[in-house]
UniProtKB/TrEMBL annotation:
This is Molybdenum cofactor biosynthesis protein B. Belongs to the MoaB/Mog family. Keywords: Molybdenum cofactor biosynthesis. Signal peptide: none annotated. May be involved in the biosynthesis of molybdopterin. It comes from Marinomonas colpomeniae.
Amino acid sequence: MAKTPTPFRPLNISVLTVSDTRTIAEDTSGNALIELLEAAGHTLQERTLVKDDVYQMRAVVSQWIADKDTHVVLITGGTGFYSRDSTPEAMMPLFDKTIEGFGELFRHISYLEIGTSTIQSRAVAGLANQTLVFCLPGSTGACKTAWNGILEEQLNASHRPCNFVSMLIGPYESNQHEA
């Protein structure tokens, strides 16, 4: 007997850009993520930009993961190998569980696009207080790669054999975290 297809369920997604040089007006990566998530049927919960500073990042993301209405946080920037890149160091202490396969799969897909330069990507993801947090590179192309190659399917309740949605809003809940 075939399983009944699970309908799409929109998620509330916040976008954080980490940059020492860009402003919101110049944030092509954040804009691309917002366009992609909205085109997929999700809702932009909040958006902000902070300098590449561990404590500023943690402050913003801690507020978002404490909000039961935020299901996913997408962070763009600060995942490279330069001395100022500190997004993984800022976020990993907040994770209750690390999604090891995200960084591995991202680098595999990215390798097919940019070759060995992907070795410098430190893209990571985890679950923090029932909120998914994905740390993506700052390039617009890399954000599109992550969305199109991984996130769009994994944030869609109808994707089989599995996805993250039921973990975030449960099988019978509305668009809310469990109380």
